[in-house]
Write a structure and sequence with these properties.
InterPro entries: AGP_acyltrans, Plipid/glycerol_acylTrfase
Pfam families: Acyltransferase
Keywords: Acyltransferase, Lipid biosynthesis, Lipid metabolism, Membrane, Phospholipid biosynthesis, Phospholipid metabolism, Transferase, Transmembrane, Transmembrane helix
Strand order of the largest sheet: 8-15-14-9-13-10
Helix content: 25-40%
Oligomer: single chain
Shape: globular
Largest sheet: 6 strands, mixed
Structural class: alpha/beta
Family: Belongs to the 1-acyl-sn-glycerol-3-phosphate acyltransferase family.
CATH topology of one domain: Glycerol-3-phosphate (1)-acyltransferase
CATH superfamily of one domain: Glycerol-3-phosphate (1)-acyltransferase
CATH architecture of one domain: 3-Layer(aba) Sandwich
Order of helices and strands: EEEHEEEHEHHEEHEEHEHEHEHEH
Distance between the termini: 48 Å
Number of strands: 15
Number of helices: 10
Radius of gyration: 27 Å
EC number: 2.3.1.51
Length: 356
């Protein structure tokens, strides 16, 4: 008999709509036996997939007595096999076997499709964090030494700290990624306060924005500030803390942003509020644009492309190969927050469509 083996968590596409499905129902207790409910659960899943194999053999792990059985999607679960010897040795298989009677649908080497393709991004991710940690330690010392002079000469913008942060960002990403920044000519003068806004796809967005080389006050959730070195550097840079579910913290954050703008410093917002899980541009919140309208400063829209595919949201441990594009658009001004919000979102959306 010809079997294709697959890990428990894997759903593997064979060809077009033919699939091998692996299902884990959880362990049975020592006094619990295989029941009709378990059979129905697997039968329902298999029956909902076109081209499902005629029979499935699987060997659950950590089961008391039932170690393998055969399933027909049309007839239910049958042919229960008992393997007390394997159970006593605690060597129950960690895999399921799927027998496909769709001739020619399998491919050689398809049994372990995760091997090289998934190991490389993880190795790149480890290298990324190793480099960012080592570089951060050395540059944080430099930032700490310079901090008294920064407070004395440039208390609000702290451009020296942002210059150090730019070195940190470029030193981390340059060996592994290519960042292409366009639209430098659209940036306001360095001493002109502005509200910068951008789409948000990945943890890498911060690195891409720091690479621009402008000092603007980021807003970050308070939990990040407790991270050694990185969190301490954020405090020195004057990053604005925010407790997302706390209305008082949100009001205090907006007030601090207004104060910074009045004193000549720029601020940065991700108006979506969180990272996009699917790469699509979410709705923009009004806060950034209300501040810009009240303080009469320009809004600078920025489109970031590529970071979501390289380090997807929720999968910060990997770093896929690729390149990042940052597009700095022309500033927009106005007194109506709603109009500013719609204009900024349309500009960023057009950048994602036409440049992405």
């Amino acid at each position: 008999m010809d079997y294709t083996w697959a890990p428990l968590h894997l759903v593997m596409q064979l060809q077009e709509w033919h699939y091998i499905v692996a299902i884990h129902l959880g362990p049975l207790k020592s006094n619990e036996y295989w029941t009709e409910a378990h059979s129905f659960a697997i039968t329902s899943v298999c029956g909902s997939i076109k081209g499902s194999p005629h029979s499935i053999l699987f060997r659950p792990r950590n089961y008391a007595i039932a170690t393998c059985c055969s399933l027909n999607p049309n007839k239910g679960c049958y042919s229960l096999y008992l393997d007390s010897e394997s159970h006593n040795r605690k060597k129950l298989s960690r895999y399921i076997a799927v027998r496909s009677e769709l001739a020619g649908t399998g491919t050689s080497g398809a049994s372990y499709p995760l091997s090289g393709r998934h190991v490389v991004p993880k190795v790149r991710g480890i290298c990324f964090y190793a480099v960012t940690a080592v570089v951060a330690i050395f540059l944080f010392v430099l930032m700490l030494v310079a901090h008294p002079f920064v407070l004395l000469l440039d208390q609000y913008r702290r451009q020296a700290h942002y210059f150090i942060a730019r070195i940190w960002a470029l030193a981390t990403v340059t060996p592994l990624l290519n960042i292409d920044i366009k639209g430098f000519e659209n940036l306001p003068a360095p001493d002109t306060p502005a509200v910068y806004v951008s789409n948000h796809q990945s943890f890498l967005d911060i690195y891409a924005l720091l690479a621009i080389g402008r000092s603007f006050k980021f807003i970050s959730k308070t939990s990040i500030f407790v991270f050694p070195v990185i969190g301490w550097a954020m405090i020195l840079m004057g990053v604005i803390p925010l407790r997302r579910m706390d209305p008082r913290s949100q009001l205090d954050c907006l007030k601090r942003c207004k104060d910074f703008l009045k004193k000549g410093a720029s601020v940065f917002f991700f108006p979506e509020g969180t990272r996009s899980k699917d790469g699509k541009l979410g709705a923009f919140k009004k806060g950034a644009f209300s501040i810009a309208a009240k303080t009469k400063v320009p809004v600078v829209p920025i489109t970031i492309i590529g970071t979501g595919k390289i380090m997807p949201a929720g999968r910060e441990g990997i770093l896929n190969p690729g390149s990042v594009r940052v597009i700095i658009h022309k500033p927009i001004e106005g007194s109506d927050p709603e109009v500013l919000r719609n204009q900024a979102r349309n500009i960023i959306a057009d950048g994602l469509v036409h440049q992405g």
